[in-house]
Design a protein that fits this description.
The complex is a heterodimer of chains A (412) and B (119).
Chain A lengths: L2 H5 L2 E7 L4 H5 L20 E2 L5 E2 L19 H9 L14 H9 L2 H4 L12 H9 L1 E3 L10 H10 L20 H6 L7 E5 L9 H7 L4 E3 H9 L6 E4 L6 E2 L4 E2 L10 H16 L7 E7 L43 E4 L7 E3 L7 H11 L7 H5 L29 E4 L2
Parallel strand pairs in A: 1-7, 1-10, 4-12, 5-6, 5-7
Antiparallel strand pairs in A: 2-3, 4-11, 8-9, 10-11
Helix pairs in contact in A: 3-4
Chain B lengths: L2 E4 L14 H15 L17 H66 L1
Classes of the chains: A alpha/beta (412), B mainly alpha (119).
Chain lengths: 412, 119
């Protein structure tokens, strides 16, 4: 029996910005030891510029601490993961976070802040959802690099060989998940909801520029949700900047350093609450995931993975070596929410952002002929409901829908 | 389950905060997109001078709206063209029908005439 899967009709993905798993959810290991986070008795450290071991500390602040923005471009992440070692046969040891941050200001004290994490009580929304639904112990960024190429994996299942922030070309025959959905027979609806036109989308070069009909705003998402009119697949982008709007003032909610983390908590609570209070709650699964770690520490080495269809040039990564896309990026927070998921679920299988188009494609379309090698090899977080799914991995496994799911309310 | 309370964000809005690498990359992507728009949709903003989040947001908004406007206008133009084509086709069909109808009525007249003669 797979009642939750039988009812599932909508998948919503909310992709936040630049925070690592240990930084946001690591404290939950003290509450649930199955969650692979960090507790004080753990021995993980990073050396600082004086070679003094720096332990993670629960001293993270909502804003004003990670300034300048920690470097998370390919060469810096390479240092963070490999501790500055180069050459063949090196091992990922997660020893270079403090070193990498030190390079930006040459301030030993400031560089240690990259090892700070939030207490559970600091993030009541994210940590409650992690404990009450399914939290992923092994969801990694798709690339040890920055935002644009990582987000490309969420839309296309590949970054077409790019490891940087430059506009990229979509290379045939790969198609975005949105094109796959709307050209299917029968057609499946799919939409990217950006916050507003002043924040817009991070997928400009291909989707926004050529397929404007695939976009809506965040207020439209809330309205569609309330009316029970969500597309089959929705991808929500947070607000990327502080700016004026026609209605007043908007504050960035993406949680990208040095934006206010509490604004992101408010956004996550709002998305969850609107879905929960909508007629679509029994039929919707919400994935909350971060695009990459933003240069902030995590103790789990990213695993190798099968190569992608595309690889980078020798120059682009900035390390002197081409990248074959045969290693994942740093671990990020990921939580799957549905009233059919058992509270306290912890998932140990390996995922990355290619899992998003892989899951949406398999669930709604059954399959698609032309996907990248990385997407072909990506695990799905919702099993297909056509008899081909592995029900041992089904997270929406409850026979009856939960009525004890949390509600959130903002204090004034 | 009990309600979980979360604090109202206390962050101060800082539109003058320097735009970070992510926003500057977005501006760069939109600059490329703007180049491919017809000139009448260009923002007139010198995007290379963008320094703050608010300046980035103003440019992002101008080009995002321009992209939507250009697509909407193109769709409307296509619809007008299609409607015009349909109208021409309908007019041609009507003309054919009228011409055919006249022939038919002449034929019918003849038939009636023949029938009348038979009687």
């Amino acid at each position: 029996m797979a009642t939750g899967l039988d009812r599932l009709q909508h998948i919503v993905v909310l992709m936040m910005e630049n925070r690592s798993f240990d930084h946001m959810l690591g404290s939950l290991k003290a509450v649930n030891p199955a969650i692979d986070g960090y507790v004080d008795s753990d021995t993980f450290t990073n050396p600082d510029a004086n070679n003094t071991p720096v332990k993670p500390q629960a001293l993270a602040e909502f804003q004003g601490q990670l300034n300048p923005d920690p470097d998370h471009h390919f060469p810096a992440v390479d240092v963070q993961i490999f501790g500055g070692t180069t050459g063949a046969g090196r091992t990922a040891n997660m020893q270079g976070f403090v070193t990498s941050y030190f390079h930006q200001q040459e301030d030993v004290g400031h560089s240690q802040k990259i090892m700070y994490y939030f207490k559970q009580s600091d993030l009541p929304v994210l940590t409650t959802l992690a404990l009450e639904f399914a939290v992923f112990n092994r969801w990694f960024a798709s690339i040890p690099g920055p935002t644009i190429c990582n987000r490309a994996f969420a839309h296309y299942g590949t970054s077409f060989g790019r490891v940087d922030m430059d506009p990229f070309d979509v290379i045939a025959p790969i198609k975005s998940i949105y094109t796959r959905m709307i050209t299917a027979n029968p057609k499946r609806s799919a939409k990217v909801y950006y916050y507003d036109t002043s924040s817009s989308s991070m997928e400009v070069a291909n989707l926004l520029q050529h397929q404007t009909e695939q976009f809506g705003t965040y207020p439209q998402f809330l309205s569609d949700c309330g009316k029970g009119l969500l597309p089959k697949y929705s991808f929500i982008e947070p607000n990327y900047s502080d700016h004026d709007t026609d209605e007043g003032e908007a504050i960035a909610s993406d949680q990208h350093p040095d934006h206010d983390v509490q604004e992101g908590e408010k956004l996550i609570a709002e998305v969850y609450t609107h879905i929960k209070n909508s007629p679509l709650w029994p039929n919707t699964a919400l994935l909350i995931v971060y695009d990459e770690h933003g240069g902030i520490f995590d103790h789990v080495p990213p695993p190798p993975c099968p190569k992608d269809t595309f690889h980078s040039s020798q120059i682009d990564p900035g390390t002197g070596q081409p990248f074959q896309f045969d290693r994942l990026g740093v671990r990020v927070p990921a939580i799957l929410v549905s009233p059919w998921i058992e509270a306290g679920t912890v998932v140990d299988r390996v995922f990355d952002h290619a899992s998003i188009p892989a899951t949406v494609t398999k669930f709604f379309l059954g399959g698609y002929p032309n996907v990248s090698l990385r997407e072909q090899n990506a695990a799905v977080f919702i099993e297909p409901n056509d008899g081909s799914g592995n029900m041992a991995n089904n997270l929406l496994s409850l026979d009856t829908m939960r009525t004890d799911c949390p509600d959130f309310q903002m204090n004034n | 389950m009990a309600i979980v309370y979360f604090p109202k964000p206390k962050g101060v809005r800082s539109p003058d905060r320097p735009a970070g690498s992510l926003l500057l990359a977005q501006v760069k992507h939109l600059r490329e997109a703007e180049k491919s728009l017809p000139p009448k949709y260009h923002s007139g903003i010198f995007s290379h001078a963008v320094e703050t989040e608010d300046e980035a947001a103003r440019y992002v908004r101008a080009v995002t709206e321009a992209i939507h406007d250009a697509h909407d206008d193109a769709a409307a133009a296509r619809a007008r063209k299609a409607a015009k084509r349909k109208k021409v086709v309908e007019m041609a069909a009507m003309a054919d029908e009228t011409a055919g109808g006249k022939k038919r009525s002449k034929k019918a007249k003849n038939t009636r005439a023949k029938k009348g003669r038979r009687r």
